[in-house]
Structures are given as C-alpha cells and as structure tokens.
Amino acid sequence: MTRSTASLLLFALTGCFHSSPDAAVLAPLVAHLTQEPADQSNQPEYLVFADELTATVFKSLRRDTRYKIVPIGKPFVCPSDIAQCRRSELSVRVNKLMGDSAIATMQRIYPGGGRQPIAYTEQILLVRQNGKWRMEKVLGRAAIILM
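-> structure tokens emitted (147 positions)
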C-alpha cells in the first residue's frame, strides 16, 4: 500500500470516530438522572442503554453504585430474586436544536414484571451559555402504558 493511500484511509477512518454533537447537548442530563430520589432498597437498578448515543452520554453511570449497566445487545438475566430486580431501558435524543437552545427527550421503559411495560418520558429544555450546555427546565412529563 502506498503512503498516500494509507494516509487517505487513516483520514477516512478518523472521520468515522468523531463524537456526536448531540452528545454534548445531552451531557447535562446525566446530572438530572442522578438527582432522582434514590430507591429505598440497596439493590442497584439494571440499566440498558437503548442505543450508542445514550451509552455515550451516560457512560459515567458505570461508576455510580446505584446502577449496573447491561451491555447493549446482551440478554439480561436478573442475578437475584425477580421481585427485587429493577431494570429499565434508557434512551435520550435531541428533538430540535435551535441555536443556543435545544429540546430533548429522555425516556425510561420499565418492563413491568408480568404487567404491561411503562414508559416514563420527559421533554427537557437545554440552553447553551458560554459554550456549555445546561438543563434549563423540564417542559413536560408523561407516563404511558405500552401495549
């Protein structure tokens, strides 16, 4: 392989590994999620990321003892009593980006343990000040029973 071909290939590959601009917008949602009231049991919540963007945004949760991260695409088997095993699937996305503001959705789906799954969704306003994104406020919340 010639040097110029190798350089072109390396340049093309590095272009594939850039970080998503959405990840920077969504980064403040980690603090929002971790401010939720703690579960009264000492059992961790098993968390499945719905996609790679969500996994990128919430990668710091791997160090949080309240959560056990289940790898994407791996089957989940509860290691303890099924009644105490809490599991959810987390997803985030930017719905609309308008200059220095963005509207995002954060959704957690709980399987329901024999009942219908429930999706808890929040619409969140994020703003950028001095180049840094922060969560401004929750615009709305919904709990939906999935069929």
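The chain has one domain: 19-145.
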